């Protein structure tokens, strides 16, 4: 079994790549695919770049060229709601692309036209493993729910309120739901695990700079634990 591990940015994969016992490194679509062993598991770890296009290309390469059996997306994200703070973990139950808009045809916001699903559901077994990993690291708070993705760094209170009301989202980021769509189309079980870097509000870019290092540490710890449980 090979697990594809995707992060959007180099800093999100930095700790993990230090622990990876590298077999082979190959560049494709300007992304470096690191094949090797991580905490005893066969993995291909890759930094895909920011946004839905980069993450979709990356996931398809993992599917077509590396035949990965599972995909895990880790990284940082904006928190939605009063109770969620930087450093907390969110495990996605399902994901939606909040910027997909064919409402002019009567579709729901987020619905990808002509696709028979509204949201992309994470693999139940992988969700449970991620949740178990969170339980075992009890000093890190964790939440499970819907994560929404779009090609936008959300830094606006009105937008967060809308994401919460329209989608019931607990977190927003820029890659998870497109990774999820590619996994859905290729029938690959996946899960998205993110750690909160900011609250997607008006000061989000400053919180993001401040809290990303701790958020990365936390998501890497959870992933480490999860791989050990697998
Ligand atoms: N210039 C910045 C851009 C970061 S974009 C940089 O290069 O560091 C934000 C990244 O973190 C994306 O990969 C996204 O998935 C995640 N993210 C964190 N907080 C977010 C928020 N409030 N809204 C959207 N994405 C967020």
Automatic annotation (TrEMBL):
Pathway-wise, it operates in: Amino-acid biosynthesis; L-methionine biosynthesis via salvage pathway; S-methyl-5-thio-alpha-D-ribose 1-phosphate from S-methyl-5'-thioadenosine (hydrolase route): step 1/2
What keywords does the record list, in alphabetical order? Amino-acid biosynthesis, Glycosidase, Hydrolase, Methionine biosynthesis
Tell me the domain of life.
Bacteria
InterPro entries xref list? MTA_SAH_Nsdase, Nucleoside_phosphorylase_d, Nucleoside_phosphorylase_sf
Q: Pfam families, from UniProt?
A: PNP_UDP_1 (PF01048)
EC number of the protein: 3.2.2.9
Q: Please provide, alphabetically and separated by semicolons, the GO molecular function terms listed in this UniProt record.
A: adenosylhomocysteine nucleosidase activity; methylthioadenosine nucleosidase activity
Q: Which GO terms describe its biological process?
A: L-methionine salvage from methylthioadenosine; L-methionine salvage from S-adenosylmethionine; nucleoside catabolic process
- Domain (Nucleoside phosphorylase) ranges: 2-227
Cellular component terms (Gene Ontology): cytosol
Instruction: Check the record and name the PANTHER family matching this protein.
Output: 5'-METHYLTHIOADENOSINE/S-ADENOSYLHOMOCYSTEINE NUCLEOSIDASE, 5'-METHYLTHIOADENOSINE_S-ADENOSYLHOMOCYSTEINE NUCLEOSIDASE
Q: What is this protein called?
A: adenosylhomocysteine nucleosidase
Q: Which species does the entry assign this protein to? A: Clostridium saccharobutylicum DSM 13864
């Amino acid at each position: 079994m090979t697990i594809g591990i995707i992060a959007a940015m180099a800093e999100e994969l930095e700790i993990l790549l230090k622990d990876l016992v590298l077999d082979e490194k190959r560049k494709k679509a300007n992304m470096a695919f690191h094949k090797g062993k991580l905490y005893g598991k066969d993995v291909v770890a890759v930094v895909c770049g920011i946004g839905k296009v980069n993450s979709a290309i990356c996931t398809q390469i993992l599917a077509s060229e590396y035949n990965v059996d599972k995909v895990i997306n880790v990284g940082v994200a904006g928190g939605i709601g009063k109770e969620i703070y930087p450093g907390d973990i969110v495990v996605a139950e399902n994901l939606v692309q909040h910027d997909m808009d064919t409402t002019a045809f009567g579709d729901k916001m987020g619905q990808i036209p002509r696709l028979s699903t509204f949201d992309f559901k994470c693999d139940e077994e992988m969700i449970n493993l991620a949740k178990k990993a969170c339980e075992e690291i009890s000093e890190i708070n964790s939440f499970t729910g819907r994560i929404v993705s779009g090609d936008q760094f959300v830094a606006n209170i009105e937008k967060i309120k809308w994401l919460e009301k329209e989608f019931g989202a607990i977190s927003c980021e820029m890659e998870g739901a497109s990774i999820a769509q590619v996994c859905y189309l290729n029938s690959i079980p996946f899960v998205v695990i993110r750690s909160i870097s900011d609250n997607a509000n008006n000061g989000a870019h400053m919180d993001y700079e401040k809290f990303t290092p701790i958020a990365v540490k936390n998501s890497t710890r959870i992933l480490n634990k999860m791989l050990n449980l697998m």
